[in-house]
Amino acid sequence: MRVKRSIALLVLVVLLGMLMTRQVYVYTRDRSFYEAHQETGQRLLDVIGSIRVTIDQYRYLPFLLTQNRDVKDLLIQPNPDKIIRVSRYLEQTNLIAGSAALIILDTQGDVVAYSNWRESKKAPRSYRSSEFFRQAISGEQGRAFATQSSSYYLSAPIYHRQTLIGVSVMKLDMEGLKEQLSLESAFFVTDEKGQTLFASRLLEASSLLPLSSTPLKQEILHNGTLLKMKVDNDKAYLVHDVLLDDLRWRVGVVEPTKPLEQKAIVAALIVAGGFLALLLLGLYLREFRLKRRSQQEVLNAHMESEQRQRHIINTAQVGLVTVDKFGKILSVNQMVMQQFGVSLTLIEGQSLHILFADIELFAPLKRWLDGLQKGEFTPITGYEVVGQRSDGSTFPLLFSMRLMTVTPEPSYLVTIIDISRRKRLEYALREANESLEQKVEERTLALASAQHELIQAEKLAALGRMSAAMVHELNQPLTAMRNYLAIFRQVIDRPDLLKENLPLMNTLVDRMAGMTGQLKTFAYKTPDNMEMQRGSADLQGCVRNVLCHYEDRIRSEQIDVSLECQRPTILIRGDDVAVEQIINNLVSNALDAIAATGSSERQLSFHLYVQDQLGCLDISDNGAGVSKEQLKTLFEPFYTTKKIGTGLGLGLAIVQGIVRDLGGVITVKTNHPAEGLCFSVKLPLHGE
């Protein structure tokens, strides 16, 4: 009967465990899927926001092109020279902005200028039937996606005196857009027909694309949440998508459900393991009760051994005290008598409490000792407390207590170790550590304060330089424009005078636009350095191209230019536009430095050579050079050695950024305040 009852109880526990395991699995799975649904929704918002931010940063480009004077001149009176000039401008702007292409169309949709004019054979000659062209011709800002080329287009109309003269177009490749998103989520973007426009690398590597190949499966959780699922090769994925009304794109995020299923399975296994542990615990307790019967027999056998232990206690070098089950002292060894200055006759039969001072302050010890009188015992090992001698003095001690199992009646062995010497050493060490920590903390605070003050001073200095330069640069044209406006009011009846002053005002506006253009070039992110390093550039050819631009100035200022090249051709990794921009800025600064000296001997030197698999260019001048203080901040933005009003101090900062993107370095090789300055640019060789 007893066995049947045990079996029935065992079966009941197993069934209850199985039911609870299933319920835990269902609850955990629903909870995991709901949390994953919420997380994918948040990631979907992040993807949509990133896409919109990435596209919005290019919206200014078509409008920027409509404001360019050279572009308008080309559309009004086209000729080959203007086409080349505008194409170079589009090429440089496209390189800085990071777009795929910039295009200028006439009113018939034919290509007039193209940023990728060096690859013009691949460019279409007309966009007459394109949707973005028709939108721009109607006076709106156009935008459209080309499925065949996987490109996104933005366009804007170009007006001259309220007359439509052409259309500016910006082309953005989807691959470039995807690389700029920098998102780790598994997302996709499709058009209205379900055709995939682009997707993250996680999805491209899988067999999920295209998503329209198989229908989505829907599942409703217990809380009413509707989930969209996709099953591919026995693998399930959670899909969360939304349609963007303005772009007509469907953006979605995919999350594999296998980890969620595994989480539910693990939770179910934990519950099953818990029930199994309870079952084993019950079996263990049954066996434990049987063993207790045999322990009593073993206790009797140890009584003789306990007698031998008493002898050991009396000769031990630590204080040993035996107490009964009520906490009364039965015996003490010689060491306890020396430690406390008492004899056995004085403390025998007394409570163990008398050995301790201020026991109320040691709540755990008092609780343990009070528990002995109630038959409760908890082993104590290495508990620090304060002992009290017979003369009232105190000392620190280490207190331990364990059960003596070989006695007929329950009794306990107490170990007492005097730790006065150790405490004195600990106190001295603690004082030394606290003093050292205080000194370190004071020094750290002083260093942090000094560093903060230095950073604030540098920020204020840069802000002051930028403000002074911008105020001076803008005040001059604004003052001149104010004077011209005053003249216009007085000569409103004489149109011939207006024709003379309007070009001057336009020049002032172009000057202010040039200043803001420098700031924009410095502020906007440069193109990806891997894109800039794909091509190759002839270092000597770039130098000669830049010198052609300054040929008139060099001749008029009678500057002696020397070019020394170690090899006939030095090919470096990068493109011609970026390299020429570096050389152009350095040559412009060198010419300004030479002109500022007023010396009759004017020299500008170029030395091209190869060193450590790097193409090297040294540009030297015999100008005034810079001081040691100026040399430290030479590459900082808004810092200039020129007079206020002659520049914003962004040239060298922009040059340093381009050199860094090309994988090179720029340094000041030599600086002689009386003999000039030498910049050294080192760029990786092509093919290395």
Write out key terms for the chains shown:
688 residues; alpha+beta; five-stranded antiparallel β-sheet; 23% strand; elongated
SSE topology:
Elements: H1 2-56, H2 60-66, H3 69-76, H4 80-97, E1 101-105, E2 111-114, H5 131-137, E3 142-146, E4 151-160, E5 163-173, H6 174-181, E6 187-190, E7 196-199, H7 201-204, E8 217-220, E9 226-232, E10 235-244, E11 249-256, H8 258-301, H9 303-315, E12 319-324, E13 329-332, H10 334-340, H11 344-347, H12 363-373, E14 380-388, E15 394-404, E16 411-418, H13 420-490, H14 495-523, H15 529-532, E17 536-538, H16 539-549, H17 551-556, E18 560-565, E19 571-573, H18 576-597, E20 603-611, E21 614-621, H19 628-632, H20 651-661, E22 665-672, E23 676-684
Parallel strand pairs: 18-20
Antiparallel strand pairs: 1-2, 1-5, 3-4, 4-5, 6-7, 6-11, 8-9, 9-10, 10-11, 12-13, 12-16, 14-15, 15-16, 17-19, 20-21, 21-23, 22-23
Helix pairs in contact: 1-8, 3-4, 13-14, 16-18, 18-20
